[in-house]
Amino acid sequence: MVFKERQPRAKGVIEAVYSEGGTVSHRLLELHLYPGNQCNRDCDFCTVFGTPKGWYHDYTIDHLEAALRTIVLTPEGTLKFFGGEPTLHPENVIWAIGYLRQREFQGSIVIYSNGIQAERLLQILQSDPLNCTTASLNYSIATGDGALQMPRKSLDLLETYEKAHPGTIAIGHPDIVDSGRGVDPFTGEASRPKVNSRCPHCYPVLTSEGKFHACPFAIENQSAHFQLGDIHTDTAIVTQNFRAFFDWLDTVHEPYAVQHELPACTVCWKHLDQLPVPDDYRSVSCAS
């Protein structure tokens, strides 16, 4: 297989951005965009409960404007489209990419996909006028380790494209995460990493329902622990709440996981009611 594993970047980076008038705003280096868990697969390990009967809402100008207020707009910023399966609604994804570019987002865009609808995925990648949109394939579906492998025709098409455009299509991490439907049952290689008491500290999510959520793996968990605000919340409060969530992970969540010898995601999936909501969360207030 020609795909290389996507390499992670620094976690939890919040940058100070200064305007020409000298005012400062704080923006995230990365943000996930989530339109719902509708998918063309129904994998037993899916972290977001993906299914053909799942929910879906188009991205709108309001959602994308909230993202643009929250993310670093320079080439260092990254927006990640995931779900669900983005290729089920390629027209909306292509429109969203075009809108973001029109509004001067210069950063990278990543499409998390199972790759089954390869032609649609390539259409999305090729739609970016800056040629800075890449794909990350699901590890299990790309390799057949723990899931039905994508059709050979799709895999061949994506491998051919990656050979012609190196670095455009990567493969996701092999770790098995106990979130959503989780790891039980899982039929893949027993050697794949499963147990880690430290949360991976991912960047937050903006859903097409208009909510900022602290964790892409727990996105379908509506607990107050994850609620950072909505599209009307001042960006400063969203970023401050995200910083408070990271502090909570290090001072409350991880010690609990270590004490009880649990993987980090298992704590949020099955024991979250034992932990307090981050006490430094600021109340949601509407932006002017």
Class inferred from helices and paired strands: alpha/beta
Calculate the terminal CA-CA distance, rounded to whole Å.
Answer: 50 Å
**What is the CATH superfamily classification?**
Aldolase class I
Strand portion: 5-15%
Largest sheet: 8 strands, mixed
Number of strands: 10
Mean pLDDT: 90
Please give the share of residues in helix: 25-40%
CATH A-level architecture: Alpha-Beta Barrel
Order of adjacent strands in the largest pleated sheet: 7-6-5-4-3-8-9-10
Supply the number of helical segments. Answer: 7
Total domain count: 1
CATH class: Alpha Beta
> What's the helix-strand series?
EEEHEHEHEHHEEEEHH
Instruction: Tell the overall outline.
Output: globular
Q: Low-confidence parts lasting 5 or more residues at pLDDT below 50? A: none
Radius of gyration, rounded? 19 Å
Q: Write the CATH fold name.
A: TIM Barrel
Keywords, separated by commas or semicolons:
eight-stranded mixed sheet, globular, 288 residues, 10 strands, single chain, two-stranded antiparallel sheet, alpha/beta, TIM Barrel
Task: Walk me through this protein's architecture.
The protein is an alpha/beta fold and 288 residues long. The chain has a single domain, classed as Aldolase class I (TIM Barrel, Alpha-Beta Barrel). It has seven helices and ten strands. The strands form two sheets. Strands 7-6-5-4-3-8-9-10 form an eight-stranded mixed sheet. A two-stranded antiparallel ribbon has the order 1-2. Strand 4 (78-81), helix 2 (90-102) and strand 5 form a beta-alpha-beta unit. The protein is globular and about 50 Å long.
